[in-house]
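Fold this sequence, please.
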Amino acid sequence: MVTGANFTDAPAYDFYNTPRKPGSSTDAGAVRLTSAGGGSEFTVSPAAVDFGLVPVHSPTTLDQDIQVINTGIAPVTFGSNGTINCVNAPAGCNPPSYSIQASPFSTCAGTTLGAGESCVINVVFNPISTSQALRTASLNVTAGGITQIVALSGHDTIATVSVSAITPALTTNPANATAKTGTITVTNTINPNTNADAGPYIPSAIILTPLTATGTFALGGTCAVGTPINPGGTLVPPVAGSSCTITITYTPPVGATGAALNGRANLLVTGYGTVSTNPIINTNYNAN
């Protein structure tokens, strides 16, 4: 046993984290490999996660893995995958916009990590409010009397969309047998310079359905499923990608005359990013 001056220099814990100074003496064989104090330490990485901009009503969610690492010498046991709350969160805290995925996506709950080992907590951002804003929260991870906090942020956005009339019309007077193409312009009119919540509109379906058996209809243009229509379509100059076109071409039956030249089709365009989940276009177009 060591007493006197050597007692002060001896480590408080051995390699197995067992106290070596229960009284006024200590075991001379005790070895301290890192700092004294029990050695229960862990870190989280990254310390902050920004999920960026997410259009309102998005059918997909964004997720991020948070790595939890035992940086101490003693085992660390986690009773859960953490909790989401407003501790130390800035303005706009909205915990319901975030969730923690269970196993197998998150692996910390019920896990004991040895020195240098790690587990993962998977956090999902899925804003549920009907108003658009910056959403913040905190992921709190606790073990061994220590709590680490990961700052969470994300922003759900809104678009306003205008749809032009088809130009030129697919009908002529009198009707004739020539092919005709009309163009529809879809524009995201919200101003990103004055609205911090401005975001894209994302088409999810563009469908042209003939309603008559006469002639043929063809769909074209620059609008595409999954391609964002960015905010800023009314600025000068407009923001790149803030509008797109849909074209409908009608070709009457060969040799037809009179009423046999007439055709009709429905154009349906759906997507997300606007307040309403209704189609932005659900219109029947006559042609001849």
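The longest helix spans residues 5-9. The chain has one helix and 17 strands.
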